[in-house]
Design brief:
heterodimer, A: 115 residues, four-stranded antiparallel sheet, 11 strands, globular, B: 114 residues, mainly beta, six-stranded mixed sheet
């Protein structure tokens, strides 16, 4: 499967726990984007990363959320001390360049449910 | 102000008919890209079609075409000969030259009736 991989597909956490979402971009893609989709809404941009660098985190909540894309391994979106409002689908996308016309290909998403 | 507006929350269309999903956008950039994605009930986001702001011809991909009217800032998706498998949410998105993120509309839920 040469597409964007995300795991887990479903994640259940209790309030106060940590959630770790992983994303492996398509082969040859070095640009990774995270988006959040609340129920019945469109996707909202969170963060854009390249290897070892956060390029744009303007959509990330200021507290509890962090993202990384290390030199080796997948990109990680980490949510500390989850609250019920964090329940959403989290999508990762990747592209080969950051050009305007470059298509971002999406993974299947991680559905986070906070109890 | 909304950057991407999709005014049709839901549409019902008879199988085999053509359908147009509306999308208007707002940007001051001269260079930008417009994308349509399909989200079936299984939840994944599937890329359908792309139109660049400088492209003179409307984009086409199989049964999908994009009716791009730059002066009106609209980028409507046209699906010809609709099929039951076209039932899904459809999102219009824009990427401006000044940043890397996609901005999405609220989507249109399309239901194809047999």
């Amino acid at each position: 499967n040469a597409g964007v991989m995300q795991n887990p597909r479903h994640l259940v956490r209790r309030r106060g726990q940590e959630a770790r979402l992983r994303c492996s971009p398509m082969k040859g893609h070095s640009h990774v984007y995270w988006y959040r989709q609340l129920p019945e809404e469109g996707l909202k941009f969170m963060v854009y990363l390249q290897k070892e660098n956060i390029i744009d985190e303007s959509g990330m909540p200021k507290e509890r959320f962090s993202a990384e894309f290390p030199k080796e391994g997948p990109s990680i979106l980490r949510i500390q001390q989850v609250v019920r409002g964090d329940s959403a689908a989290y999508f990762c996308a990747s592209s080969s360049t950051h050009r305007t016309g470059e298509t971002q290909y999406f993974g299947p998403g991680t559905r986070l449910l906070v109890l | 102000a909304q950057k991407i507006t999709q005014t049709q929350p839901g549409m019902f269309v008879q199988e085999k008919e053509a359908v147009t999903l509306d999308c208007t956008y707002d940007t001051s950039d001269q260079s930008y890209g417009l994308f349509w994605y399909k989200q079936p009930s299984s939840g994944e986001m599937i890329f359908l079609i792309y139109q660049g702001s400088y492209d003179e011809q409307n984009a086409t991909e199989g049964r999908y075409s994009l009716n791009f009217q730059k002066a009106r800032k609209s980028a409507n998706l046209v699906i010809s000969a609709s099929q039951l498998g076209d039932s899904a949410m459809y999102f219009c998105a824009m990427r401006e030259n000044t940043n890397e993120k996609l901005t999405f509309g609220t989507g249109t839920r399309l239901t194809i009736i047999p």
